[in-house]
Structure to design on (408 residues):
């Protein structure tokens, strides 16, 4: 199988992909401010990279363009695509890009991108978190991107067993995983192994499903170690996405949410996750990833260069990293955010790392300052920008949920 690697989010981007908000039902009774929140997000992103924006049609493009112009976005870096969607959460429905080994990508005739990037699209099945019925247009987005660029499109499947039957196309959302770019992946059992909102029924027991998913992560994302946390945060209708509770911020450092209030629903799940994170140990690290610019000190597998440098340092990295713990930095949670009596999945961990900046959701909360400073310490060479997200999170997602990075 072709050697592939899913880059870390802090590695250089060619662009960010988003969907322009269009479905008022995603923010019932509160849709009016949402396009302006998006305008502020795009204003910052368009300073540092291209932004691909999916809209339903030309009329939608014109409306979005007007708002973005008034909001001060860099219009020269915006690229619109008329691809109808059901929802805006492109982290979950969009393409998960991987890089393939040098020389393995064949460029399609008439494509829009130089094949030197060696990019491919992994097109995992999207079924709206096994909760909603309208998702067919969203499930087509990765195919559209692969066709646009003329790059390989990989649909991960579990082959049929000995009894026959059909291959099982694997359901996976980008918000359910986080990677360090060097072969390690974070996820939760609640999301990928639970019988509630079950993503991949028919793969066997929980342990059989775990093994089959880990094999798929290895084959299609270049993962050699999967770290399984237990549960996600309160209010999350995805049932356990990792990007609200724990995130890699460097190859050996994990930012983990904590809730000291023992009466809060998040206290016990986050404490359990933290205990697991402290217990994990590094296995060998055959891959590499560029540093994020942080000053944190970890094992030698955190190489400072592109993949070519691994050939010179890989042996040393492997011997020094194996058996070492990950560095764990704690991140507070905001006070519970409610709207119309419903608790919302407000979390500072739903930040998005772009070229030279990090966008962080804020909630008019005293913990905003602490969270921003904590994340800033993890990314000292990047600008840390708070985005007011009290309205946005009524849609049950925030900044990481709505973005998808395209590696450079």
């Amino acid at each position: 199988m072709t050697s592939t690697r899913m880059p870390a989010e802090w590695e250089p981007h060619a662009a960010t992909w988003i969907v322009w908000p269009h479905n008022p039902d995603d923010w019932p009774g509160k849709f009016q401010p949402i396009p302006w929140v998006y305008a502020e997000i795009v204003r910052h992103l368009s300073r540092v990279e291209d932004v691909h924006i999916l809209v339903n049609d030309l009329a939608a493009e014109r409306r979005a363009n007007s708002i973005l112009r008034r909001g001060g976005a860099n219009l020269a870096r915006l690229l619109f695509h008329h691809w109808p969607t059901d929802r805006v959460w492109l982290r979950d429905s969009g393409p998960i890009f991987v890089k393939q080994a040098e020389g393995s990508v064949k460029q399609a005739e008439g494509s829009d991108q130089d094949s030197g990037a060696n990019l491919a699209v992994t097109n995992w099945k999207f079924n709206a978190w096994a909760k909603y019925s309208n998702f067919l247009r969203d499930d087509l987005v990765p195919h559209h991107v692969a066709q646009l660029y003329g790059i390989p499109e990989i649909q991960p499947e579990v082959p049929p067993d000995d009894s026959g039957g059909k291959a099982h196309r694997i359901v996976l959302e980008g918000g359910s995983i986080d990677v360090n770019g060097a072969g390690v992946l974070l996820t939760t059992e609640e999301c990928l192994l639970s019988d509630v909102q079950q993503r991949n029924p028919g793969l066997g027991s929980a342990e059989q499903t775990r093994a089959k998913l880990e094999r798929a992560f290895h084959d299609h994302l270049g993962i050699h170690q999967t770290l399984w946390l237990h549960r996600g945060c309160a209010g999350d209708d995805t049932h356990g996405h990792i990007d609200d509770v724990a995130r890699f911020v460097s190859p050996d450092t994990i930012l983990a949410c904590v809730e000291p209030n023992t009466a809060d629903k998040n206290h016990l799940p986050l404490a359990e996750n933290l205990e697991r994170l402290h217990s994990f140990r590094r296995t060998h690290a055959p891959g590499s990833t560029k540093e994020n610019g942080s000053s944190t000190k970890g094992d030698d597998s955190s190489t400072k260069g592109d993949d070519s440098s691994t050939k010179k340092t890989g042996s040393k990295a492997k011997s020094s990293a194996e058996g070492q713990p990950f560095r764990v930095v704690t991140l507070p949670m905001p006070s519970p955010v409610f709207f119309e009596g419903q608790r919302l999945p407000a979390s500072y961990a739903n930040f998005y790392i772009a070229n030279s900046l990090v966008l962080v959701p804020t909630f008019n909360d005293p913990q905003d300052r602490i969270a921003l400073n904590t994340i800033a310490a993890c990314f000292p060479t990047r600008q840390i920008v708070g985005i007011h997200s009290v309205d946005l999170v009524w849609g049950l997602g925030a900044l990481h949920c709505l973005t998808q990075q395209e590696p450079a």
Notes: The chain is about 25% helix and 20% strand.
